[in-house]
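Q: For a teaching session next week I want to show students how multiple molecules come together into a single three-dimensional assembly. I've collected the sequence lines for a complex. Could you give me the predicted structure tokens for the whole thing so I can convert them for display?
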Amino acid sequence: MAQEFVGQALVRSDAVDKVTGSAMYVADIRLPGMLYGRVLRSPHPHARIVSVQAGAALKVPGVIAVVTGQELDALGGEAVRDMPFVARHRARYVGEPVAVVAAVEEKIAEEALKLIEVDYEELPAVFDPVDAVQPGAPLIHEEVGHYTHIGAIRPVPRSNIAHYSEERQGDVERGFGESDYVFEDTFRIHTVQHGQIEPHCAIAQWGTDGKITVWTHNDGPHRLRKDLADALKLPLTRIRIIVPYLGGGFGGKGGLKAEPLAVAMAWKVSPRPVRILMTREEVFTASLVRHAGVFKIKTGVKADGTLLAREVIGYWDTGAYAEKGPTVVKQAMVAAGGPYRIPHLRLVGYCVYTNRVVAGAYRGYGIPQVTWAYESQTDMIARRLGIDPLEFRLKNLLREGDLLPTGQPAQAVGLEECVRRVAAELRWGERPGPGRGKGIACTFKNTKTPSGSAAHVSVNQDGTANVLTSTVEIGQGARAILAQIAAEELGIPVERITVSFPDTDTTPFDASTTSSRSTFHMGNAVRLAAQDAKQQLTRLAAQMWHCGEEDIAAGGGLVRIRDRGENAIPYPALIGRCYGAGGSILGRGFYYPQVGEAGEMWSAPSIFWMYGAHGAEVEVDRETGRVNVVKLVAAHDVGKAINPVTCSGQIEGGAVHGLSVSVSEEVVGENGRILNPNLHDYKMLTAADVPEVVPIIVEFPDAEGPYGAKGIGEPVLAPTAPAIANAVEDATGVRIQQLPLTTERVLDAIRNTADAAAKSKE
Amino acid sequence: MPMVKKREIVISVNGTRYALEVKIYDTLLDVLRDGLGLTGTKEGCAAGDCGACTVLLDGKPVNSCLVLAVEADGVEVVTVEGLAQAGKLDPLQEAFVREGAVQCGFCTPGVLMSAKGLLSVNPKPSEAEARKAIAGNLCRCTGYVRMVQAILHASDSMPGCQDSSEEE
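A: Of course. Below is the structure for the complete assembly, covering every listed component.
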């Protein structure tokens, strides 16, 4: 049956608000009596805080209050509660908050910061994850292992290891023994920043009734409510989170960012609201970055190209606090062997503290890093064996029914289709021109499981409907597709449906808008809620018409007696007849996937997996090392595109994001200090830099997803870097094993290879 | 602390004239957002790198975070709120909506103003010219793909632009 709304390229409902400048973001909110907070930050990567003297700052006219860590005992963190709202006795990275000032104007608060005196005692620091796990490295958290943490995390006491994960399948030593060739290679990946154009901002108000309201751009409002409640030891009902539009997220606006600073200050100046707006420099130095890391990958293979065994050891630089680092490492390492049939696997991950800015959730949640390692090596292995890299992949790819690393059989596997479509778009069989090369890479990603989403659908007396949901609009188009799903279920036009903004006092529980989970989980919840609403309408109609509920059909905006076309009446007429004084029908849906116990060896089942492949055609200038990406192709299996335009938009944006972080962006640091914390020296690609981008939507419907839909936002940048590096090797014969692919790095590699070749001829 | 110096300026914004008292360190962006409550123009970096604060100043796109309010005395400013006329969207706004060129929307006002500045002097830009015109506006969501298409389609649909070649 053709769908009227789902699968249609409908114009998203928030587009007009956004093109007219009327869409509201947190920094656009003005509240009566609002104060402006600015943050004093540690200049040292590791130091004991001996004393904080704010007396002089408090004397500045217009300054209302100062709050320091010594006054507030609050430790927060999703996986591990290791992070104080404001540093108490120790600063662990350059940029850590040490004091907050609130004043009637931002500039006054800024001036007052300069008058706060802090006495520090510097401590030895460590900046590299491999160094940080060596015996004798400075200990960043003495309390490792003693912090409250979720059950799945394995900290190593008296070390800098926030989490250690090890997953095994079969016996890798046996696998290597049976292999014809064993290859060992090391890959490095750098630090990048999310680059959301909207800087971090939160407004908090600690009311006279003790209720804390926070206006923020957080991607998990109910999660934030819980995190604040846990840290402050308050019941959930004392905290209310309100989320307007987000100006981009990519993982950087979850957890505790500007919110704890605003709450700490609001506590001090209760009941006045306080705004914390981060400068772009603070966004770079003190919000969040992506995990840098070192990956050692050892693979055993038969001469005919069959993969037998793979061992991956990853050292992940999580920075000064855990944030989501432990779950990033855990989930990504499970997939670190790649989307291939490999009987023997050993996957080891170290989530390591360093005295650097905090690393955490970043689009892909660790999958880009492991994909960089395994897809670079997979290509190298194919070339070393003299097998075409496309053929090598097709030989080993996961297919329907193959066992996933979690022991589940793979279903709805659009991986091969993605790889073939990319190869076709690149005209893989045709050799590119001189100085040019082609490369392919593929990936797969789980979604966090289990996680729950609830929705309410209210059918109003005029036949319109409200969808109440805590899913956040980050730009991905969630509000649009949830309206499309509600429209399809109810049979009401999408223009007569309005979707709420999250407010934890009124919109029901949702785990988060992360992990590409919302279309699937919240989409299912909206479907269930719409079905519940229709069930209630059915019951009303049955009472009204004095028949059984089984005789009534509800859908397409009407209720009618089955097999009888006449007497069909629209929802508003039914509601009006039954509730003459006004009323609504409130449907409720809660989706929480049931997963069986995963095999004891694996602890990360996923209710669905996403598959994708990218391809690149590049031109490399051997004189300068400049890599010019001429064409970028990105194919993703989304199950079902609820809205093909918003879905393509995510693929296009993700591919360009992936390109930008592969060739152009790098957070450069020295001794824990970031040297380029601005958008001039941290180079995000502009419209003038972007090549031809070809997005390809592949649909292998998932049995459990709403209309077959899975997800898209997370994996879209994972395969780009290795696809480009693979194309660079195709073009030049040179393999780069470290990102980013800057001109210097590529040129050095070309020269070293030429030197080595020249020497071997001597 | 010494009292902050203030100055009076007269500025036209979206066709309306305002007489304002501004601090000497206020930027045009501060005046628009805080002084006049026109929050459509965004602050992304306060350093002229991201373009989120782009407005038209006497017809030319500028980063309003780099213009001091006192420099804007006597000028005409157009912000994103001034694009739609009499409740009707500008062809650029229509094209962005139709083409799916809007995701999070935070860079959108700045991009629209850069594009408006381009089309008012170059009604039929090439793709390269369109890309160059918005090269000062960073976007992380869209990859710029549909924005460029939208600008080119908007120029196609604008009245009086179709047959400029006939004038030669």
